[in-house]
């Protein structure tokens, strides 16, 4: 049943995200563009309502470790809320979260978001979370080119920013991109994976969609094809200095996990993260479980309460459930930009118990 829901989930994304990518949209009268945007959002909301009433609550929460310890994370600041109003996944203006776009101004919007995160967030934990979420849900969906520049807030806060440059654009499979970022002054490189691309007007969009329903595991075939290119870049930057961190959201989170597992000698021991990834296949989970305990704990996985995408396959890594004061509908839960919320809770997941309760 969950796989059927996932297929509908992807099909719905595709139908109502398509058309927003076409450059011709920019040439249409503003009223028509706004009407099309409203129709897209209304359709997504209707589908989210369907998922909300179809899926039982136990399929939208995760088995928590005992004793339960709740950590509250407070990030929300006015600029992030403004950003989501204009650029959130459900925005009728210019959605950028989880949605591919090619306009240069959209990259500038992502740069501004990262700058404000560095300036406004003082708490190191909140700063790291907001930075990582902005990278995987906003920056990864921009049409980055070699030598494009972005700034990444450091763990010190107080507006301290590292300058990063796009050093390599990967062709994972049929144009599916990932981005190798290198920083200044010894900052750890970043291998940034993009989540699903719902552009039906591109070969890479179709490849991304096919990767989601890969029978060997979401994204596994694409990773296998790109593995020599990935290893080449990882070894190159490691020989220059620090090893790269691997991060991604949704399908990108799966790709980050495969890279961490199969190229573990060449990735950083800190800062490797997957946001809302689908789970691993049984075979890949067996290989994951052969990692040393300290290495398994070093890879952090965030799943949102209410999201069903991470219920597919087997959960892995040092996993945490993130929760708002209410359970969002499934589509909203998958695409929400938590850094724009006033606060949310974080609780450790009992991965073994969670996997015992799953049939897929």
Question: Could you describe the 3D structure shown?
Answer:
By secondary structure, the chain is of the alpha/beta class. It has one domain (about 1-355). The chain has twelve helices and ten strands. Strands 1-10-9-8-7-6-5-4-3-2 form a ten-stranded mixed sheet, with helices on both faces. The radius of gyration is 19 Å and the shape is globular. The relative contact order is 0.14. Mean pLDDT is about 90; it is low at about 15-30.
Largest sheet: 10 strands, mixed
Q: Work out the helicity level.
A: 40-55%
> Radius of gyration, rounded?
19 Å
User: How many DSSP H or I helices?
Assistant: 12
Summed over residues and divided by their number, the pLDDT gives a mean of: 89
Structure in a nutshell:
This protein has 360 residues and is of the alpha/beta class.
Strand-helix topology:
Elements: H1 2-17, H2 30-54, E1 70-73, H3 78-87, H4 104-120, H5 124-137, E2 149-153, E3 161-171, E4 177-183, E5 190-193, H6 203-212, H7 220-240, E6 245-249, H8 251-262, E7 273-275, H9 282-289, H10 293-298, E8 300-304, E9 318-323, H11 330-335, E10 344-348, H12 351-356
Parallel strand pairs: 5-6, 6-7, 7-8, 8-9
Antiparallel strand pairs: 1-10, 2-3, 3-4, 4-5, 9-10
Helix pairs in contact: 1-2, 4-5, 7-8
Supply database-style keywords:
alpha/beta; globular; 10 strands; 360 residues
């Amino acid at each position: 049943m969950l796989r059927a829901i996932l297929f509908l989930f992807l099909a719905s994304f595709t139908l109502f995200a398509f058309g927003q990518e076409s450059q011709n949209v920019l040439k249409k009268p503003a009223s028509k563009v706004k009407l099309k945007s409203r129709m897209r959002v209304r359709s997504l909301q209707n589908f989210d309502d369907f998922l909300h009433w179809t899926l039982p609550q136990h399929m939208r929460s995760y088995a928590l470790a005992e004793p339960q310890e709740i950590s509250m994370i407070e990030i929300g600041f006015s600029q992030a809320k403004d950003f989501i109003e204009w650029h959130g996944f459900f925005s009728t203006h210019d959605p950028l979260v989880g949605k591919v776009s090619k306009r240069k101004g959209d990259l500038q919007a992502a740069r501004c978001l990262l700058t404000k995160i560095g300036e406004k967030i003082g708490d190191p934990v909140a700063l790291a979370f907001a930075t990582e979420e902005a990278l995987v849900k906003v920056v990864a969906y921009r049409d980055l080119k070699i030598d494009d520049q972005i700034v990444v807030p450091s763990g010190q806060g107080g507006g301290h920013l590292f300058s990063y440059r796009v050093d390599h654009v990967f062709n994972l499979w049929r144009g599916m991109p990932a981005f190798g970022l290198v920083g200044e002054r010894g900052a750890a490189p970043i291998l940034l994976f993009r989540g699903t691309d719902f552009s039906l007007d591109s070969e890479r969009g179709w490849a991304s969609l096919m990767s989601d329903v890969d029978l060997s595991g979401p994204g596994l075939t694409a990773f296998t094809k790109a593995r020599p290119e990935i290893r080449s870049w990882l070894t190159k930057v490691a020989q220059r200095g620090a090893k790269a961190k691997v991060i991604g959201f949704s399908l990108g989170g799966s790709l980050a996990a495969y890279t961490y597992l199969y190229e573990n000698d060449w990735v950083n021991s800190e800062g490797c993260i997957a946001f809302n990834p689908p789970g691993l296949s049984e075979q890949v989970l067996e290989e994951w479980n052969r990692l040393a305990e300290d290495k398994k704990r070093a890879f952090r996985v965030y799943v949102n309460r209410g999201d069903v995408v991470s219920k597919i396959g087997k959960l892995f890594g040092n996993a945490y459930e993130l929760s708002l004061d209410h359970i969002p509908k499934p589509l909203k839960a998958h695409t929400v930009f938590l850094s724009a919320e006033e606060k949310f809770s974080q609780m450790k997941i009992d991965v073994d118990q969670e996997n015992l309760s799953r049939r897929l």
